[in-house]
Amino acid sequence: MKRRKSFGVKLWLWFVVFAAAIFLVLWLLQTVFLQRFYNGMAIRNAERAVGEITAHEADPDFYEVIDEIAVSNSLLVFVTDADGNVTYSADEYQRLYSGTKHTDTGTDNPYRAGDVMNWEKGALRNLPYSYASLLAKLKETGSNRVGFVTEDGAAYVTGVVLDDGCILSVSMPLGTVGGTVGILRVQLVWVSALSLLLGFVLAWGISKRFEKPVAQIAASAKEIAAGNFRPALPKGFCAELDELSDALGETALRLEKAQNAQREFLANVSHDLRTPLTMIRGYAEMVKEISWSDTEKREKDLDIIMREADRLTALVNEILEFSAMQADSLAKEYEVIDLSRAVRDVIEQFAPFCAQNGYVMETEIADGVSVRADETQIKRVLYNFIDNAANHTGESKTVKVSLTAKNGSARFAVTDFGNGIPKEDLPYIWERYYTARNRKNKVVVSGLGLSIAKEILTAHQAEFGVENQGGCTFWFVLKTVSRNA
Questions:
Q1: Do 417 and 471 have their domain in common?
Q2: Beta-ladder partners of 171
Q3: Is residue 371 classed as helix, strand or coil in its secondary structure?
Q4: Axis-axis angle for helices 449-459, 295-326 (nearest 10)
Q5: How far is Cα 434 from Cα 427, in angstroms, rounded to an integer?
Q6: ∠45-47-52 over CA atoms, to 5°?
Q7: 54-82: per-residue pLDDT in tens?
Q8: What is the pLDDT of residues 127-145, one digit of tens each?
Q9: Is 147 inside any structural domain?
């Protein structure tokens, strides 16, 4: 099986990839694309400079504006007449010889005014070679403004015909970053090497710092899986891991509670199964060895065996029913049922019991109350509540059953007139096997009845509860619906 990388290693690798991507982009920008960016900016600066110069053409300080723009933008600027004679010039070194006469032909002028293309006659700087191309393009296009890159790609030249017919020529060098690129390349080699080394170390440290709490949480999860439901959970590193630790801690507590409940459930089930099984076996042996020939005694013993067998069957059925409900196997699609009729049907089941044992069933049942529910499951709740009241009503032997409908809700309630439930026990009466753990009477019950009722009512989204005043009243509320719904 292929070994997967740890969280720390993956985090470190991602940091490395991120750093490499940053340096790759930096190299491309500073070497491969630097000339292209420089050329684009140079062309834009030259065109903008022409616009600024022409905007001040009518100003008395026109030539001073040219000087300032030429120096600040590293431009070579010529103003010539229509025949190509230089009338003014400026470049980025203009301040070095400020005060010279630019219109003079003397030796103090670094530019020679004379014949067009007269760059061989020993002047310090004559018109550039591109000037002829500028004049040709102005003539070809018939426009008063042109711009182009020279054939050797060394400069960008733009020119414009001024209002007085003079020609403004602006040149911007384009090949000056070659040496800069070489310097940057050497510098980037050192910067990249040192930065990558530092980045690897920092990424490794950060990955280890992040890996530690994650590894601790993983170790705690393994402890929980091994049965230690209260492991030490790391907190304080970041909000997300704190939430994960809290969730894992809560899960551990719930698992501990579920495991304890399961053990208790199995212990109680074993106890309740053992009692009827022991009695069945004991009375069966008694019938076989003692009362087989005594008809009357044999019949009594067989009745006990049958009763205990029925009790055992009922207990097993309740356990299976409760397990099915815990597995969420209750039906979710309900039908409209007549709750009034369902209540009367269940009460009718208790008629023989009441007649035989002298119990009184006081009823107040509203007619035509309909709800959306599973009729079998709701009858199971009704039977459980009424049976529970009959078992605990005490010497009065009176049980009150009511069904009322008001404001779109149906409320079913069963009241006994016994001693009630101790206040400290009320929070636990819906737990499975609560009765089996806290029996205070001789009534034989499984302890699953109220737990089953709770599961059914929860599935039906019903409100339910118990009131402990003058006996106990168990109740639930369901929304009413029309019979045609």
A1: yes
A2: 76, 157
A3: strand
A4: 30
A5: 10
A6: 90
A7: 999 888 888 888 888 988 888 888 888 87
A8: 787 888 888 888 888 888 9
A9: yes
